[in-house]
Structure formats: structure tokens, C-alpha cells
Automatic annotation (TrEMBL), chains A, B:
It comes from Novosphingobium sediminis. One of its GO terms (molecular function) is RNA binding. Signal peptide: none annotated. Substrate binds at Y113. Pfam families: PseudoU_synth_1. It comes from the Bacteria. Residues 9-106, 146-248 form the Pseudouridine synthase I TruA alpha/beta domain. The active site is at D52 (nucleophile). Its EC number is 5.4.99.12. Transmembrane segments: none annotated. Homodimer. The keyword Ribosomal protein does not apply. This is tRNA pseudouridine synthase A. It catalyses: uridine(38/39/40) in tRNA = pseudouridine(38/39/40) in tRNA.
């Protein structure tokens, strides 16, 4: 049995999220079906994060176990060939062999996301489904300042979806920054793990700050209330990208 | 009669190029049909450049004449509303009123393009149809050096398609640069005007240089031969973006 660790890129638009669903396509199913034709037996893909419908990944980390052993480079090439044949919007960026104690989800030390806001009036064409368009001029500096309120160990109940299955609402947000690049405003977030919808919920509230409707103090009040009804706004999935994960020894 | 000057963004993938075609969708037709519902009479869209099938625009400059006069901002909003309703991959980024001696094609002083190469092994997912994937490591420095051979006034017959309708193969290339940004290699080109397929032909040959199969001297030989049979390679449309145009007084 050989464990392969993968770095995956995917476009979230055709999928009902990462995780296999009974009633629609998923990244997991797309990958597993491709892998099964390569290795000749059922495969389970484990990932660092389980992104929602419409959320993208630039570098999702994942693994699967194979009874067929190929050199990792050839395995990656074979998987990409099958994924292309099936016209899936998933690609293997990297494939390496790892020991059986390496687990994409359970040994992961950190996850990072970026959220892309296209701050412009015109409807999105080249970025349709790939960014959140906000027409009103955003104050990225004020957003960055308010973001610092959220950094650290907090009860993030306000920023948690009703479907969240995490045992505790307390998480440590290591990094949250907001930067402007031309007509884009980019929010970067890093933590060991996130609650369901946490990044999109934080971004929704940061957008209110950027529009001048919330202050950093409103952000602090919302956080301290630990009450989902205090959530200002949930950002759409379009602009969210899983950017990377960190493992011991990296 | 009011003349509106526009800046347009479009995704080239759904269209058989900018120019109206008898047998397929075009950017021109998409825009003209949207505009006709707004102004209530037939409209002709004139543009700075007529891009090929699959070529994109970040800022195409164009104009049309309208018997109905709206404030430019409202005209832009109305056009975008119709384009969205028709699910077209075209958006109006800017709309201003100009005098009748302003012509998107005939008064244009310069056009600029960028060509995006994704220099990576894995198939493209997030950039499918939006970049040219080259797996072999490219030497962007060597490409930039070879690009300088082409800058200036030359007979570009080697880099001209058989369908080119330009009166002369002599053009002045004002700028041609190659830069690396992570795993992307970006070619930027600027001239008053280009021959048909000129940018894609130049990029195709620059890629040969990047792969070490051509030298700057080979590029010079190909240029000086003024012979289409000496063309090394024509890059696909996917990576080509019309980036902007320049007019008197700008």
C-alpha cells in the first residue's frame, strides 16, 4: 500500500463543494473516479479542507492510498490524464509518496485562504464566478485595521454557520490581512483550522467596514457578542480560494 | 446623434472573434444586439482592434453612435444590464461621450497586448482557455533579450498570417518585453498597429527561445528572411489579451 500526498487545483464552479454528495458532482467524487481507473480499486481522497459549493483551490493538500505503486511523477501524470479525459476542473499540481502516518486532514498544522473582491462597477466577465464584485469604493486600510480585531484566540460563534460541525467555536486566527492590488481587494486568512463559513463571514463584515457602514469597534462588538444574529453579512463563495496547508517538517 | 466611446472587457472563449461573422457568435454582434435594445435602432460598433477567436480583452476601446442620448454613466449601466440579461461575456468598463471626429479605429495611436504563458506541468484548471501552458522551464531572460531583436521598424512578413489584410508588412514595434511572475511568463507588446497574428507569431518564436531551441540570432534570421515559412511557431489564442489603446490627448 502506497500513500500519495497531492497538491490539487480546482475550479469550484462545477462542484457542490469538495465533499462527496448524494445529489451532485463534487471534487472528491471527480478525483476518486479518476483515481479508481488508474489504480484499479476504490479510492478515498482525504483533504486538508472541505470547501463549499463554488469555492476554489489553488493548492489543496490531500492524500489517498493505492495498492498499485507507480513512481509519484507518473502517478500524477496518470491522474491528470484521467481528469482531463473526464473534463473535470481538477488538476494535480504535485504528487509525492508519504509515510502512512501522514494524513492530509489530521496532521495538518495550518490552512490558508484568500478572498478576492473585485472593487468595480462593471459586471465581472473575465472573473465571473471567481471574485465578489463590490461597486462601492472600499477603504482597504480601514478593513485591514478592523481585521486585526479578529486575530488571536476567540469564540467565533458570530462568524460560524448553523451547519458547523466543529466541537468548539473557539479558534485561533493567526493572520488576517487586507491589501489592495489595483481594483482588487484581497483578504488573506491563516489558522490551524476554521469554522464552517468563518472566512466568508469575516469577509462579509470586513466589506461593511470597507464601505464605511461598520467600524473596527462594530467588528469587536460583533465578535464579543458571540451571537450569529450579529453577523453583518456572509460573502458569496465566488471569491474564496483555498491557498495552502502546512504539515510537520515543512 | 451622440457618439459614445467605450472601454470593454470580454472573455474570448464564447466568440468567433471580435468581428461579426455569418456563422457564429461574435463580440460585435453581442454588443450591437444589446445596444439596439437600449437605443431602439441599428448600431455599429467600431473598435481599436479586431481580436481573433478565443482572444480576450481587458480594455478594448470602441465607439458607437446613438440617436438616443443618455448621460454616459446611465448608457453604460443600461448596456451592462442588457449584456448580462443576454448572458454575454462582455462588459462595459467605461462609457464617455466623445466628439464625432473621435474614431476608435482610425484615430487610435497605439495598441497594447499581453500574452500569458503558464509555465507549469499540470493541465490548467483555473486558467483553462486563458493562458498557454508550456511544461518545459522557460528562460524568460533569454526570451526578453531575443524580443529586443524585433523592436523597431521592420518588415514583419515572417510573423504575418496568410489572411492578413494590412497594406504593408512593415510595422514599428515600439515595445516587446518578457517578464516572469512566479510560474507565469508574460509577454507585453505595443505598437501603433499589428499585422494579423503578429503577436501570437512573435510569442510562438519567443517560446522556442525560452525552451533553448532558438537563439536571439535565430530570431534575427527569421525576421530578416521576411518569409512566413521561417515562422517557428504560432502561439494559441488562449493566452492573448488586448490590454489597451491610446488616443490623441491621452
Amino acid at each position: 500500500m502506497t500513500r500519495y500526498a497531492l497538491t490539487l487545483e480546482y475550479d469550484g464552479r462545477p462542484y457542490m463543494g469538495f465533499q462527496r454528495q448524494a445529489h451532485g458532482p463534487s471534487v472528491q467524487q471527480a478525483f476518486e473516479e479518476a483515481a479508481e481507473t488508474v489504480v484499479g480499486h476504490p479510492v478515498t481522497l482525504h483533504s486538508a479542507g472541505r470547501t463549499d459549493t463554488g469555492v476554489h483551490a489553488r493548492a489543496m493538500r490531500a492524500h489517498f492510498d493505492s495498492e498499485k505503486t507507480l513512481p509519484p511523477f507518473r502517478m500524477g501524470e496518470a491522474l491528470n490524464a484521467r481528469l482531463r479525459l473526464a473534463e473535470q476542473a481538477v488538476a494535480v499540481l504535485d504528487c509525492v509518496e508519504v509515510s502512512e502516518d501522514w494524513h492530509a486532514r489530521f496532521t495538518c498544522l495550518g490552512r490558508s485562504y484568500e478572498y478576492v473582491i473585485a472593487n468595480r462597477r462593471a459586471p465581472l466577465v473575465l472573473e465571473a464566478g471567481r471574485a465578489w464584485r463590490i461597486a462601492q469604493d472600499l477603504d482597504a486600510g480601514a478593513m485591514h485595521e478592523a481585521a486585526q480585531v479578529l486575530v488571536g484566540r476567540h469564540d467565533f460563534t458570530t462568524f460560524r454557520s448553523a451547519q458547523c460541525q466543529s466541537a468548539s467555536p473557539v479558534k485561533t486566527l493567526r493572520h488576517l490581512s487586507v491589501r489592495r492590488e489595483g481594483d482588487h481587494v484581497i483578504v488573506a486568512a491563516e489558522a490551524r483550522s476554521f469554522l464552517h463559513h468563518q472566512v466568508r463571514s469575516m469577509v462579509g463584515c470586513l466589506a461593511l467596514v470597507g464601505e464605511g457602514r461598520w467600524t473596527a469597534a462594530d467588528m469587536r462588538d460583533a465578535l464579543e457578542a458571540a451571537d450569529r444574529r450579529r453577523l453583518g453579512h456572509n460573502a458569496p463563495p465566488d471569491g474564496l480560494y483555498f491557498m495552502g496547508a502546512l504539515y510537520p517538517g515543512e
